[in-house]
Design brief:
Elements: H1 5-39, H2 43-71, H3 73-92, H4 97-124, H5 128-159, H6 163-183, H7 191-195, H8 200-217, H9 222-244, H10 253-256, H11 259-275, H12 277-288, H13 294-301, H14 303-318, H15 324-342, H16 351-378, H17 385-415, H18 425-452
Helix pairs in contact: 1-2, 1-4, 1-5, 1-6, 1-12, 2-3, 2-4, 2-8, 2-17, 3-4, 3-6, 4-17, 5-13, 5-14, 5-16, 8-9, 8-17, 11-16, 11-17, 11-18, 12-13, 12-18, 14-16, 15-16, 15-18, 17-18
């Protein structure tokens, strides 16, 4: 069936936005050593350049999904693009690390508004039988951003300087904003529905998550452990509060009464927890241990997202015809095997082997992501697309936060407040090995949830 002009224009604006966010994330990873040198940061502070963005996104994604359902996804999508673009400019002109980290946090808020509503907009205008293919295109744009980020980011960092990456992000933001205002139609604003939302539980979530993340960065101090325990307790209170609310921001019944939705989201959370810090670790490893320039390191790292970009739309289309969990479980297994292989990295590991493992992990992630997202979005009704999209994006971002928190935890324990460039090679490699070993064990748990989720009943959803 041919796609309408509305469908094609909507697909265009959503994939451009998806590309924009991940391009920035991956290009910043490759520029971390340059940022460390520019602002004289230690390892833990440097990790916050990455963590601030994904923390803000994770805090906002859940409520953004609900806000989109009741007040218009297109409207929130445009607001997010404007915030992202302005924050990118502030990142580019940051005079110090504090400014940069705060601007990155605001940038993450804008990205959250656009990402969670973008997928909901996309899913709402395509029929169920085409959903896997369309989601595959969107996921491919995400991974294309991840693939080009290290390459382009490495080039600009090496020849112009790291602020140029944020200028590129600002230009992409302007382009996406223009396309959004040209093609996305206004939606009816359900103000009455918005007034009835129970916001109380969300406050616990938005305080508990930062407490948990920041606490992991100051371990083993008593403050760190106190913040972690406090964060966990606040997240438990959030869940209990949302479970009892008449009109919750986050519908816990989607997890307690929908096994397919719940297990698919848990599998996504685990997958991103296990895999997100791969680029973070390898970017530092290739430049510190192997002595590669940013551009050359980007040429190695590009292998993983390139495979993800190539195979995501293909596997997404297959998942419209074959049960998605078969692809997702195979992909999770391949990722776990690659993580276990990275746990044996040392000074003499050849670059061709690192490249090969990245190709393997990239293929595994390509097999996992589109079918898993297809399952999540197809396991709910049309009136819950915003929440489902917000939840899926939140699982991705929370997984990324957990991944960075684990990496930061090993840095905090082993580096003693020193910068990555100052610690000894054995100490740095010890942190990398502990990190990848931990991620491999986490991946094993993910294989179970991916397998045990059950089959998608394609006749259960109505196009309402």
């Amino acid at each position: 069936m041919a796609w309408s002009k509305k469908q094609l224009s909507t697909l265009l604006v959503v994939v451009v936005t998806s590309f924009m966010g991940t391009f920035l994330v991956s290009s910043i990873n490759i520029s971390l050593p340059a940022i460390e040198k520019s602002f004289e940061l230690n390892a833990v502070a440097l990790s916050w350049v990455v963590t601030a963005f994904i923390l803000a996104s994770a805090m906002i994604l859940l409520p953004a999904g609900k806000w989109g359902d009741v007040s218009g996804n297109a409207r929130l999508f445009k607001i997010g693009l404007i915030i992202f673009t302005i924050a990118s400019v502030f990142c580019a002109v940051a005079p110090n690390a504090t400014w940069l980290i705060v601007a990155r946090f605001v940038q993450g808020i804008g990205s959250a508004f656009s990402n969670t509503t973008g997928q909901a907009i996309l899913v709402s205008i395509f029929p169920l039988k085409q959903r896997g293919q369309v989601i595959g295109f969107n996921v491919a744009s995400v991974y294309t951003g991840l693939a080009l980020g290290p390459l382009i980011g490495g080039f600009f960092t090496q020849h112009i300087g790291w602020p140029s990456i944020f200028w590129i992000a600002a230009l992409l933001g302007i382009l996406a904003t223009i396309i959004a205002f040209m093609f996305l139609e206004k939606e009816h604003l359900n103000k009455a529905g918005a007034k009835n939302i129970d916001y109380r539980g969300t406050v616990f979530y938005m305080i508990g998550l930062p407490a948990l993340v920041y606490g992991s960065s100051v371990i083993p101090s008593p403050t760190g452990w106190t913040l972690i325990v406090t964060g966990i307790l606040l997240l438990i209170i959030f869940w209990l509060s949302e479970s009892r609310a008449a009109n919750p921001m986050f519908d816990t019944k989607l997890f307690t009464h929908n096994r397919l939705f719940a297990f698919s989201n848990i599998a996504s959370l685990i997958n991103y927890t296990a895999t997100f810090a791969i680029v973070f670790f390898l970017s530092l490893y290739l430049q510190k241990i192997k002595g590669l320039a940013p551009q050359d390191a980007g040429m190695i790292i590009i292998a993983q997202p390139l495979m993800m970009a190539i195979f995501s739309p293909i596997v997404g289309k297959w998942s419209d015809k074959i049960q998605p969990r078969y692809f997702a479980t195979l992909g999770m297994t391949m990722c776990t095997m690659g993580l276990a292989a990275f746990a044996f990295l040392n000074e003499n590991t050849p670059l061709w082997l690192i490249f090969s493992i990245l190709v393997w992990v990239g293929l595994g992630f390509g097999l996992f992501s589109s079918p898993n997202t297809n399952t999540i979005m197809s396991s709910v009704g049309k009136t819950q697309y915003g929440q489902a999209s917000g939840t899926a994006a939140s699982m991705r971002m929370i997984g990324q936060i957990f991944s960075m928190s684990i990496a930061t935890l090993f840095f905090a324990i082993l580096f003693g407040g020193e910068a990555v460039s100052e610690v000894s090679v054995p100490t740095f490699l010890s942190a990398v090995r502990w990190g990848f070993t931990t991620f491999a064990f986490i991946g094993l748990v993910g294989i179970y949830f991916s397998t045990a989720r059950g089959d998608l009943n394609r006749g259960s959803e109505t196009e309402r």
